[in-house]
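Quick check before the chapter quiz. The format below is the same one you will see on the exam, so make sure you can read both the input and the output lines.
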Amino acid sequence: MSKLLVFCLDALCTSDIEYMKELPHFKMMFEKGSYVKHVEPVYPTLTYPCHCSILTGVTTEVHGVPHNEIVDPENPNAPWYSLRKDIKVKTVMDVFKEHGLKTCSITWPVSGGADIDYNLPMIVPISYQGDNPYQFYVNYSTQELLDRYYWKYAPFLTGENRNLDEFTMHTALDIIEDYPDIDVMLVKMCDLDTVKHCEGISNDEVKKQLRKHDEQFGLLLEAVRRFWDFDETNFVILGDHGQSDIEKNINFNLLLKENGFITTDENNHMIDYKAYCHSASMSAWIDLKDKNDEELRKEVYEFLLKIKEDPQYNIGYVFTKEEAKEKYGLCNEHIDFVIEGLRPMSFDSTLSGNDLFEKYLKPGWHHTLASHGYLSERDETTTFIACGKDVKEGIIIERSTMLNEACTMAKMLGIDMEGTQGEVWSDLLREK
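Here is the expected output.
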């Protein structure tokens, strides 16, 4: 019986492929497997929407997770999507379970409380700095895994030197050894994304991180050799989105404030708004408070088109909510318009600053040297690499969509996944 191990590297870019081919363990995937060079993510190319689309094969409109954050202009500290119940449709992990396969997921977003046999979700709040992350895992994880491993690896989740990837790798290796009955395993790593945010997309630090991930993948391969049936296992390395170096950062809510769409007190705290900008990092949503005010809608649209014509603002795309839904399957109650830079640009939603443009992009969620969240067809794509019993050798698909990944991974194990908006990459797979 075939098995499947998926190794997800957050922000793995097509541009990383050539260096990966030089590394000892990744190299094996290219030499003995096949790959899709340019995988276009869903829009916006943010981590949580993309991870949901990887597992469901549908756009954000259908699966219901359009952003990392649960967007709310009245609550700038709104939580992130964390729970499986936030996804409105069936995932490929559900399909595997229905076919009697044992499933495992380590640090996958939006998987808290999922019906997965062995589950340690990515669920600790993004800004959490305390020393008791267990409180977020309990009731949403497999208690057996918490009892067996948490005491041993909890130090990786606390303190100044905490590192979620270390927690992920240590638990993943133990789980492969202790649970040889697992048929499907997802392992998600975060640090490549972090390094690119802070350092840019192509430099020695990125190569260093890719070498580290190559070593980690090598450990997973060795664990499968020792404790599973290596010859029966299919391996997939995939990314959730690419990244692009940022040329400019704009605090678009300051622009809306200057033009009368937002009012604040003397401390720049918002009192009220007619139109508000929600950052999706390298794109943004414009949210109208009164959805029924057609005069306001027209006024804001004309304002955005005027801004688009002025090169100093670097706005290259303005979509109505209807266009965003039709073109990209993106819709949400807080989307009335979607905007994006002509050249790579990040958007800030805060009202605390005084500068419309920030020359220095300091590390942080919206202030980084590189980021994502842009249109899915732009060249900063991700990739999908497969190798194993059910995968052909030497096939390269130049460009395709992320929506094909779920049904393709299901087909590797001989399962037809219905209800996706994608199609199986049949050219990659051996006939059964």
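If your answer matched, good. Residues 106 and 279 are 28 Å apart (CA to CA).
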